[in-house]
Design brief:
Shape: elongated
Distance between the termini: 23 Å
Strand content: 5-15%
Order of helices and strands: HEHEHE
Strand order of the largest sheet: 1-2-3
Number of helices: 3
Largest sheet: 3 strands, parallel
Helix content: 25-40%
Length: 76
């Protein structure tokens, strides 16, 4: 799906815990996530800390969308 969307020049960010899968499906902008059961969260954190973590992860994804790339890139 990622490659098909990008074929129309629409940038996509693939957020995934297992980044090798992102690479194998052809994702160009990859943002690693936290864990398989909670990819963009961490229930062990206090709610306010988890919100900050999620906000930072979404910001990383938005920044990845705005970044010009020429090959698959991880945005850690």
């Amino acid at each position: 799906m990622v490659k098909e969307i990008e074929r129309y020049n629409i940038p996509i960010v693939h957020m995934a815990t297992i980044t090798t899968i992102s690479e194998s499906v052809g994702a160009n902008r990859i943002v690693p996530t936290v864990a398989i059961p909670h990819p963009v969260g961490n229930p062990a954190l206090k709610p306010e800390d988890e919100k900050l973590m999620r906000k930072a992860m979404v910001k990383r994804a938005v920044d990845a969308l705005a970044t010009e790339i020429s090959e698959a890139t991880h945005f850690d």
